[in-house]
Design brief:
- By secondary structure, the chain is of the alpha+beta class.
- It has 15 helices and seven strands.
- The strands form two sheets. It has a four-stranded antiparallel β-sheet with strand order 4-5-7-6. A three-stranded antiparallel β-sheet has the order 1-2-3, with helices on one face.
Length: about 350
């Protein structure tokens, strides 16, 4: 069972305090672990590597590893996923198929995917155990003809397109998107920012993918980069939903976890900055008030003031570090913050005027 969009929305509505109480920061476990375990046995099969320690791969690599842990679907779903791979791989022409990947998990998945989808093998097959880029190629004419036939591509038309006949049901559409992401997709580490994209060299494919995503309820954007046509998301919630849909709920949760961390960190920073500013204001005000009191004392007018003003002056000199509210509570009897502020302002005015007055 996959994590549903409504379940993700429930997690998004958690307040920062609830996020902390749940122990979610940096996959500390608790409520989030139980949430995922309750939703998907396949997620639990991913093992503790997703929950403990730091991955040596990039975030995009982790996403592709998670996607490849899922089992291949039936033949129609396998064909849809393989067509997504072909349209978003490095090269797919009448003469050659060339797929280059740095993901060991994707390199391990590819041979089985093409066997199930088309009943064929690669002419050149990269070793998943070899570090660096793995290259898979098909150059045999008979194999290429079969790929073009199954994917309903027209050899006389150099512009590829998406064969929507393979994408009539939901699982096949999801499989196609998964294949496209595995071959030509990337996603930024959520600790750095929010960006997911799918890149292809085929203009018509990019436009048709945009239409497909709109039908599925997404709002992607489009751009070009050199010879590639890019379909991308910048909204974190759209990326979460997309990753969940194609089979990477743990990655989607990690993105939400990063958002929660940023929210908590920003909240703490705001509170610290606010408190620091308040302390600065208190210190500056207290210094001005003590200088005014000292001026009145040197002028010999401090003892001529009213008892309330003398009390305010004595308390400020005895407690220069206290705020107005704290100082007001020490008055006998206690007064309001506004009342004490008025008395201290009066002392400053008197010191500036150079003469003391007996009233408040």
């Amino acid at each position: 069972m996959s994590v549903q969009k409504t379940d993700l929305n429930l997690f998004r509505r958690l307040r920062p305090a609830e996020v902390c109480d749940a122990g979610l920061v940096r996959w500390a476990g608790g409520r989030l672990r139980r949430f995922v375990q309750s939703q998907s046995a396949e997620v639990c099969d991913a093992g503790p590597a997703f929950w403990e320690g730091e991955s040596t791969m990039s975030f995009a690599g982790d996403v592709k590893t998670e996607l490849c842990r899922g089992k291949l679907g039936d033949k129609s779903a396998a064909q849809a996923e393989a067509c997504g791979v072909l349209l978003y791989c490095n090269r797919f022409t009448l003469d050659q198929v060339k797929i280059v990947t740095e993901s060991p998990a994707f390199a391990k998945r590819l041979p089985g995917l093409f066997r199930k989808a088309f009943g064929l093998t690669f002419d050149e097959k990269g070793d998943p155990g070899t570090p660096g880029k793995r290259i898979f190629t098909i150059g045999d004419r008979a194999k290429l003809a079969l790929l073009w036939e199954v994917c309903a591509f027209d050899p006389s038309d150099p512009a590829h397109h998406i064969n929507f006949g393979l994408l009539e049901d939901g699982p096949c559409r999801v499989a196609f998107l998964r294949g496209a992401f595995l071959a030509g997709g990337s996603v930024t580490d959520p600790q750095k920012g929010y960006h997911l994209e799918l890149a292809t060299t085929h203009l018509r494919v990019s436009r048709e993918l945009h239409t497909l995503l709109l039908e599925l309820g997404y709002t992607p954007k489009e751009t070009t980069r050199k010879a590639n046509y890019i379909t991308y998301f910048k909204q974190s919630e759209a990326i979460e939903d997309f990753l969940t849909a194609i089979g990477a709920p743990i990655a989607a949760m990690e993105l939400m976890n990063a958002k929660a961390e940023k929210l908590l960190r920003n909240g703490v920073n705001r509170r610290v900055n606010c408190e620091a500013a308040n302390v600065d204001k208190t210190v500056d005000a207290a210094l001005e008030q003590r200088q005014a009191i000292q001026t009145l004392r040197e002028a010999g007018t401090l003892d001529t003031l009213s008892p309330k003003l003398r009390e305010a002056a004595a308390l400020r000199e005895a407690h220069p570090e206290l705020s107005l509210a704290q100082l007001a509570a020490l008055c006998d009897p206690p007064v309001t913050k506004s009342s004490l502020s008025h008395r201290l302002r009066k002392l400053i005015q008197l010191s500036q005027a150079g003469a003391g007055e007996g009233g408040v």
